[in-house]
Amino acid sequence: MTTILFNKPFGVLSQFTDKGTAGASRPTLSQYIDVPGVYAAGRLDRDSEGLMVLTSDGALQSRIAHPKYKAPKTYLAQVEGMITEDALIQLRRGITLKDGPTKPARARAITPPDIWDRDPPIRARKSVPDSWLELTLTEGRNRQVRRMTAHVGFPTLRLVRIKIGDWTLGDLQPGQWRHA
Fold first, then answer.
1. Which DSSP symbol is given to 151?
2. Strand partners, 77
3. Which of 66, 106, 156, 179 has the fewest other C-beta atoms within 10 Å?
4. Which of 136, 62, 110 is CA-nearest to residue 144?
5. Exposed, middle or buried, 180 (CB in 10 Å: 0-12/13-18/19+)?
6. How far separated are the first and last CA of the chain, in Å rounded?
7. Checking phi first, is residue 133 left (phi over 0); if not, alpha (psi -120 to 50) or beta?
8. What sign for the dihedral angle of Cα 160, 162, 163, 169?
């Protein structure tokens, strides 16, 4: 069995081939990982960064990706505006999105993390401050963190996953991977 931890860079698809628009060539996992027989256990949006687990073990892949197992996933989110305690309380209680109520999240404000610069950088707006929070979810709906932070009034500018279950990103830089 092979299991790999990968720091997915911004703009990279979380799959090995691009099945998108004809003629468009977007970066995929195959440009970073040349290990046969491993598949992504879950996804990260193209505009999200951070930890992905890839494995050749189908049962492990299911335990990570399938909602019934509730594998905790932790994210750092840079949001527009200064996050409030009220917004954090709403996230901790769970909120109702268009596709139904979310499970409660662990949510806390944090100081800006010491992580790599994003390429391309986040567009800074001098008149609008930003802040960071750490969120841990046990479900993985499409663009869930972004939809949750927007719902409480703080749109996500940057999203970095740092932990899946017991696996952490550690010191992996964007585009780097290591065996778990």
1. H
2. 133, 159
3. 179
4. 136
5. middle
6. 11
7. beta
8. positive
Residue type, 87: A
Question: 7 near 177, Cβ under 8 Å?
Answer: yes
* Domain shared by 106 and 153, yes or no: yes
Peptide bond into 120 cis (omega under 30): yes
Is the domain of 151 the same as that of 172? no
Q: Taking residues 171-180, report their average pLDDT.
A: 96
pLDDT of residue 121: 87
Whether residues 92 and 31 share a domain: the answer is: no
pTM for this model (two decimals) = 0.94
**Which parts of 96-155 are beta strand (E)?**
96-97, 100-101, 106-110, 130-137
Q: Which residue numbers are catalytic?
A: 45
Domain harbouring 100, CATH code:
3.30.70.1560
What the block records as the tokens of 25 is 């060539």
For 90-138, the pLDDT digits (tens) are 999 999 999 999 999 999 999 999 999 998 888 777 788 999 999 999 9
Q: Containing domain of residue 31, as a range? A: 1-70+167-180
Position 68 scores a pLDDT of 82
Mean pLDDT score, 142-165: 96
Residues 62 and 95 in one domain: no
